[in-house]
Amino acid sequence: MEPWQPIDEDPAVLPPDPLPKQAAIGRWIVIVVIALIALLELGSLGLALLQGQVKIGQLGRMCFTLWLLMEIWNGTAWARWLLISLFVVAGVGLPIVIFRMEQKMGVPELVPALITVAIVVAVISLGLAALLATPWVGAYQAVKRQSSDSL
């Protein structure tokens, strides 16, 4: 017997993926969205901690976000559509608020930074909404609901 032998890659030996292809793609989209939101939330918390301004409302929002993401992972359709709606509101509404804030402040030096923030917020929010709205995520959630119903 040789010390090194290639692994037999016979498909009958490998465990099959329990999810259909569309649902598997949807699972990865949900994982990416959860990871991005977690990074954004941790960054927000880190900035607040550095400034010494952690508020109960921020912690409550983080708990609500965590709960909503858990519901999406578990296949709850209304949680997915609620998060999509919140992303669309943030993607459209926050840039408007930022532009209005700049007009009231009247500090021309902040205009490029505020425009950049508005664009970044819009792109991230609307991008995450578009990812969650794909039929792949719906297929993943349908499989999750069916598997939890069969338990």
Please explain how this structure is put together.
It is a single chain. The protein is mainly alpha-helical. It has one domain. Helix content is 76%, strand content 0%. The chain is built from 5 helices and no strands. The longest helix has 31 residues, at 21-51. The radius of gyration is 21 Å and the shape is elongated. The N and C termini lie far apart (46 Å). The model has no long low-confidence stretch (mean pLDDT 85).
The number of helices is 5
What general form does the structure show? elongated
Number of domains: 1
Average pLDDT taken over every residue = 85
Order of helices and strands: HHHHH
Tell me the radius of gyration: 21 Å
Stretches where pLDDT is under 50 for at least 5 consecutive residues are: none
Alpha-beta content class: mainly alpha
N-to-C CA distance: 46 Å
Specify the helix fraction band: over 70%
What is the oligomeric state here? single chain
Sheet with the most strands, sense and barrel status: none
Which range does the strand content fall in? under 5%
What is the number of beta strands? Answer: 0
Question: What are the defining features of this structure?
Answer:
151 residues; mainly alpha
Layout of helices and strands, plus pairs?
Layout: H1 21-51, H2 56-73, H3 77-105, H4 111-132, H5 135-149
Helix pairs in contact: 1-2, 1-5, 2-3, 3-4
Short précis:
With 151 residues, this protein is mostly helical.
